Amino acid sequence: MSVPDAMQAAKYSGGSRPYRMLIFTCWPTMSPSEKAPETLADAAPAQHPVTDRVREALAITQRGVDELLPEAEWVRKLARSEATGVPLRVKLGLDPTAPDIHLGHTVVLNKLRQLQDIGHQVIFLIGDFTSLIGDPSGRNTTRPPLTPEQVKANAETYYKQASLVLDPAKTEIRYNSEWCDALGARGMIQLASRYTVARMMERNDFHDRFHAGTSISVHEFLYPLMQGYDSVALKSDLELGGTDQKFNLLMGRHLQAEYGQEAQCILTMPLLVGLDGVEKMSKSKNNYIGISEAPNDMFGKLMSISDGLMWSYFTLLSFRSLDDIAQLKAECAAGRNPRDAKVALGQEIVARFHGAAAADTALQDFVNRSKGGVPDDIPELTLTAPAEGLGIGALLKQAGLVPSSSEAMRMIEQGGVRIDGDVVSDKALRLSSGQFVVQVGKRKFARVTVA
């Protein structure tokens, strides 16, 4: 089946209407290695007037972004949408590589919601097909592809969690297996003919791996092609992604032009730095805050970020106006305790995902812990001790407070383990019987009965 035939065969989810190719006047396109040729200042006159509402929409689009390319084309699209009343199609694709979404994912989800709130059509694309390939973006090794079973299990939770940010009633949910499966071998070969190996090797991660002698599998070249083809199938006007996705997003522009469509604009958002203050937020680096985490844990993690990192979190995660954030930052610079700002941020984020009451409770729990108090709601369990008593390392591991006995020893060395409020320094400590409140770090507690 050819690529156009595959598009004719692909169906909308839950319906029977086939895709039909729409032919647009094709604007100039950029390759994934090129930069936008225009800015708003030197743009050619728009076909439709740039009104105050268009300027407001542009300001909303630009808040917190890394790049908007090409800006002048996006202004023209906004002006056309304003004049005709036809919403623009705004796409975000996420591969379900893990079962949970963290706050780093919500940076682009928040931007998607902002564009949704000003009237544009949001498409939340779940990359169930592309997950089977594995995204090579930013990798210095081949990313292991997921199994279909892993993808299905992870995808089941993605939209439910994304709906905590997006308006479900105004969101179009799609899976790229709808059109990618329909391509077949013939269609895949025809799609691959639309781009050259030389241009593909301009991509930084491929370039670096090639010159370092690190292997690059042929299937990895298919990933940006398939992500770009998503834009063709969905006829998107704007695609969002993190800064590490720029090559893939520009591939969408290239392929849309190849198929006679109006090229999408692209918008990249900064990558949210994780709790370690160094690496991007990632589950694999254990520096993340999951949006489905318990309110108290979420609040405590937000309070642990540095004062400097806090302002980046405000810009990328908060729904406050930029003027409000600037005023709050100025107040802190003038002597106000930055902790007040961090509390406000923590409560806003917790309230968004768990409600205002949970945010208030989380604050009280945090205050109680900071004063050395024990939270009201902590796990309770009973452990059986051998005749010589239960070693502290085994106790911490069995109570679920550490992943391993070696981690328990490391936490003891750092003074991070307390029993009934007293710091434990003896790695050979054994407990025979009794009930104890055991604490690891600032946020992990358990009430343990040793019998």
Describe this structure in words.
There is one protein chain. The protein has 3 domains: 3-269, 3-Layer(aba) Sandwich (Rossmann fold), CATH 3.40.50; 295-370, Tyrosyl-Transfer RNA Synthetase (Orthogonal Bundle); 380-450, Structural Genomics Hypothetical 15.5 Kd Protein In mrcA-pckA Intergenic Region, Chain A (Roll), CATH 3.10.290.10. It has 17 helices and 13 strands. The chain has helices at residues 3-9, 52-62, 71-84, 103-117, 148-162, 177-192, 197-200, 204-211, 218-234, 246-258, 295-303, 307-317, 322-333, 338-354, 356-370, 392-398, 405-413; strands at residues 67-69, 89-94, 121-126, 171-175, 238-242, 265-269, 380-383, 390-391, 417-419, 422-423, 430-431, 434-440, 444-450. Helix 11 runs antiparallel to helix 14 (338-354) and helix 11 crosses helix 15 (356-370). The longest helix is centred in the middle third of the chain and has 17 residues, at 218-234.
Provide a short characterization of the protein structure:
It contains 17 helices and 13 strands. With 451 residues, the protein is of the alpha/beta class.
Sequence stretches where pLDDT stays below 50 over 5 or more residues: 1-45
What is the CATH topology of the largest domain?
A: Rossmann fold
Strand content: 5-15%
Oligomeric state of shown chains: single chain
Number of strands: 13
As for the number of domains, it is 3
Query: What spatial order of strands do you see in the largest sheet?
Result: 1-6-5-2-3-4
Shape: globular
* Count of individual helical segments: 17
| CATH H level, superfamily name of the largest domain | HUPs
Query: Which architecture of the largest domain per CATH?
Result: 3-Layer(aba) Sandwich
Major sheet: 6 strands, mixed
Radius of gyration from CA coordinates: 26 Å
CATH class wording of the largest domain: Alpha Beta
Through-space gap between termini: 69 Å
Order of helix and strand elements from N to C terminus: HHEHEHEHEHHHHEHEHHHHHEEHHEEEEE
Which secondary-structure class do the elements indicate? Answer: alpha/beta
